Amino acid sequence: MEPCDPKRDVKQRRSNIILIGMPGSGKSTVGVILAKQSGRDFIDTDVIIQTMQGRSLQEIVDLDGYMALRRIEEEVLLKLKLCNHVIATGGSAVYSDSAIRHLKSDGIVIFLDVELPALMSRVQNFWTRGLARSPGQEFGDLYEERLPLYIKYADIVIKCGDLSHEGVCAKLIERLGETSGKM
């Protein structure tokens, strides 16, 4: 993993592509494809959290509560110092202003915008997925709570609609004004 050198100019440092969005929006899948197409490394912060904690996200929520998961996620995000990466964040990353500002210092934040009905059809394991949500909070309520935060922090919003994961990558590359070979 290539750390960012603070002596590099801002344009060079902002080489990361940070994916934000709801669970089921395709951050991890799109991230892998995008990393491959753009010659970047890929990391999934949910995987980092689970590896560091030695347990699943759901176990963290069950044993320590959803706010503990949010704190752990914030700590992990604040420690990232990378260049040339595609970073798939957890859906709750946007609850931490400091973590998002830190990520933006080295990258472009992309919101993968998927409508609620499509998300609900994709996320079948809502109650056991390890989401940082208050007890009893329904998926639609979580969506309504997070949507303004995703929009607030996004540098670019990709309306995913009925696009395939490859289609989302193509649209993202187009929006970045780059070609897949030159990203």
The level 1 CATH classification is Alpha Beta
What is the typical, i.e. mean, pLDDT? 88
Cα-based radius of gyration, to the nearest Å: 16 Å
Which strand-content bin applies to the residues? 5-15%
Look at the structure and name the CATH superfamily: P-loop containing nucleotide triphosphate hydrolases
Helix content range:
40-55%
* Spatial arrangement of strands, main beta sheet: 2-3-1-4-5
Question: Describe the biggest sheet?
Answer: 5 strands, parallel
- β-strand number: 5
Show unreliable segments: 179-183
Q: Structural class, from secondary structure content?
A: alpha/beta
Element pattern in H and E: HEHEHHHEHEHHEH
Number of domain modules? 1
CATH architecture group name: 3-Layer(aba) Sandwich
Total count of helical runs of at least 4 residues: 9
- What is the rounded distance between the termini? 17 Å
From the spread of the alpha carbons, the general shape counts as globular
CATH topology: Rossmann fold
Short description:
The chain is an alpha/beta fold. The chain has helices at residues 10-13, 27-38, 45-53, 57-64, 66-79, 97-105, 116-122, 139-153, 165-175; strands at 16-20, 41-44, 85-88, 107-113, 156-159. A 5-stranded parallel sheet has the order 2-3-1-4-5, sandwiched between helices.
Labels describing this entry:
globular; disordered C terminus; Rossmann fold; five-stranded parallel sheet; 9 helices
Report what the structure shows.
With 183 residues, the protein is an alpha/beta fold. It has a single domain (10-175), classed as 3-Layer(aba) Sandwich (Rossmann fold), CATH 3.40.50. Helix content is 49%, strand content 13%. The protein has 9 helices and 5 strands. It has helices spanning 10-13, 27-38, 45-53, 57-64, 66-79, 97-105, 116-122, 139-153, 165-175, and strands at 16-20, 41-44, 85-88, 107-113, 156-159. The protein has a 5-stranded parallel beta sheet, with helices on both faces. Helix 4 crosses helix 5 (66-79). It is globular. Mean pLDDT is 88; it is low at 179-183. Its cofactor is Mg(2+).
